[in-house]
Amino acid sequence: MRFSLLMGLIIAAGFPFFGGHTKRNALRDCRQCLVVLADDWRSLNGTMQCFERKDSDSPWQPHNSEIPVSLGAGGLAWGRGLISPKPSTDPIKREGDQRAPAGIFFLGEAFGFASAEEARWIKLPYRPLSPDVIGVDDPRSRYYNQLVVKSQIAKPDWQTSEQMYRGDVRYKWGVVVAHNMPAARGAGSCIFLHIWKDAGYPTVGCTAMSEDNIVKILQWLDPALHPLFVQMPRKKYSRFQPRWNFPPAN
Q1: How many domains does the chain have?
Q2: Which domain holds residue 227?
Q3: By CB distance 3.0 to 4.6 Å, which of 53, 186, 194, 242 could disulfide with 58?
Q4: Contact 80, 106 (CB under 8 A)
Q5: What is the model's pTM?
């Protein structure tokens, strides 16, 4: 599969700005990069490594050692982010396919069970979760692919949603991956970095890791350094890494 370098950075008009950043300069100005690599499209697990650099002309330096992560129970599929794959035999992310999105993505807000005061150590915008917060995964809803406070919605229009304040620790800490924003109907929703259920246990489309590791990532991430999240099979990354000037794969 080939990528058009120009069109790969411009998927659709009206993509939201993140910290005043557009897709055109996101790759150039990124100074923190989370890279998740998997063996192939069917992989249920992968490795994450964090990299940083002083400026766009400086070499990437590893911030940590490799972190084991769990991927979707369906493996990986190209998602809607900063690059747009041309039609090919590679899988494309769809709602309910239990695949984690591959591509290059902005990171949105952090979230967790702690209060805003207790989470002051997090530099990303932070959302405290409560039983009133849900993720809307109904493609027919105008709130599709959004976290909303149910009590603030006068006319709920969704049939399905995901409870964010749940009876386990998976969403005790997490980060929104800006996949499928603005939302295209049925292209996948509610993608996060979060705590895994158990080591190696697959997700329904997110990227999960140990609580200790996600806390370390949250301590490190700084929106002023324009972080990006990169996730794909290792062979795809190796092919395009020099073109994007991303960290070399291990």
Answers
A1: 1
A2: 5-14+22-244
A3: 53
A4: no
A5: 0.90
